[in-house]
Design a protein that fits this description.
165 residues, alpha+beta, 5-stranded antiparallel beta sheet, disordered N terminus, Morn5, repeat, MORN, MORN repeat-containing protein 5, cell projection
């Protein structure tokens, strides 16, 4: 009897048509669905402002493009952004380099002030005591594992290293 009730529930409540589905991580899918899966045109919107616009087939992205929060579009081929030869920020690509002595430290100029005891890890602030990354607006993004913690502590800007800009 329970099996029949579950069958009815899943058959009746399958997501079909256009709609919005929000994951617990606050990632949001907006688009077409069929039989409870992403199917057709749809966009995944990530909490950090980036998005993945794709054509889906039975829950699998068949073709799509990823756009970072700052507007930079990822290219699978001929990607020359932030490689060994070009280390400028995307805003510098769009607006040009700043004059000597006014170098940019982040994609934003002036950069955001990092909260005490934290790091700027590129998509938000990292608090090493709680191991939590929050968005620049304060929303939860993720818990950092050991590898990400080590990378952030080794490479990212620190609150106690901020200087005048």
């Amino acid at each position: 009897m329970l099996f029949k009730k579950l069958q009815y529930f899943f058959h009746y409540y399958k997501m079909d048509g256009k709609g919005t589905y929000t994951f617990p991580s606050e990632t949001k899918y907006v688009g077409e669905m069929k039989n409870g899966m992403f199917h057709g045109k749809g966009v995944l919107h990530f909490p950090n402002g980036s998005k993945y616009d794709a054509t889906w087939e039975n829950g699998i992205a068949k073709q799509g493009k990823f756009t970072f929060a700052d507007g930079l579009q990822y290219q699978e081929e001929d990607w020359d952004y932030c490689d060994g030869y070009d280390r400028c920020f995307y805003s510098e690509r769009c607006n040009g380099l700043r004059p000597a002595g006014e170098s940019q430290l982040t994609d934003r100029h002036p950069p955001l002030v990092i909260p005490d005891g934290c790091y700027d890890c590129g998509d938000g602030f990292y608090d090493p005591s709680s191991r939590v990354v929050t968005s620049y607006t304060g929303g939860f993004l993720r818990n950092a594992d050991d590898a990400e913690h080590a990378w952030i502590v080794r490479t990212c800007r620190k609150a106690w290293n901020q200087g005048p800009y």
